[in-house]
Write a structure and sequence with these properties.
alpha/beta; 9 helices; Rossmann fold
């Protein structure tokens, strides 16, 4: 029997989108663009950093917003149940400096993400991606060491890991992404996703 490992996206799947929350908090609507709107993450992040600089905003202000964000209703219970059955890794394009308080609220699951470059005054000067195409690369690496992966996510940047997995699902995705990928099972509730994962395990 092969070993299974579940790979989940973070934002939009287990917690609200951090940048959308920060866009509301800061009153800068342009910051609400996410990978659902802009598939090129590098381009999206450079654009975000430009806006932060323009408004004199840094890491502290974003972390203050994150402190007030709670996981989506039912997310922690879903994750707890899933982790009692199988190994779970959250693979996210977010940054360690953003993720930590959210991981605490989710009971410290394993997360693979990226890191920000921050100046002493708190200005975010850049970002370091852990690896290119991190979601797909991670799933392939797990498969190379004997795991069958089961993946779920909501955005453009999750599609490659969903497609490359033994079982893959869209979760709380957009109408457009669901329409563009009718071959991928799409779920809206943790109960439905749990049933689909159990079947795949």
């Amino acid at each position: 029997m092969s070993m299974k490992i579940v790979c989940l996206d973070l934002e939009g799947v287990l917690v609200p989108e951090i940048w959308i929350a920060f866009a509301k908090e800061s009153g800068i609507p342009e910051l609400s663009r996410t990978t659902r709107d802009e598939p090129d993450y590098d381009k999206l992040m450079k654009w975000r950093l430009g806006i932060l600089k323009e408004h004199g905003l840094g890491l502290r202000q974003i972390q203050e917003t994150i402190a007030g964000i709670d996981p989506l209703p039912g997310a922690k219970e879903f994750l707890d149940e899933l982790r009692s059955m199988t190994q779970v890794i959250i693979i996210s394009d977010t940054f360690t400096q953003f993720a930590r308080p959210l991981m605490e609220k989710l009971g410290w699951p394993t997360i693979f993400c990226n890191s920000l470059e921050v100046a002493p005054d708190g200005e975010i000067t850049g970002f370091r991606m852990r690896i290119r195409d991190s979601k797909l690369t991670t799933v392939k690496a797990l498969q190379s060491i004997g795991y069958d992966t089961i993946a779920a996510g909501d955005s453009h940047n999750d599609l490659a890991m969903i497609r490359a997995s033994k079982a893959g699902f869209l979760f709380k995705s957009t109408e457009q992404i669901k329409k563009d990928h009718p071959e991928l099972p799409a779920f809206e509730t943790y109960g439905e996703l749990m049933e689909a994962i159990k079947t795949a395990i």
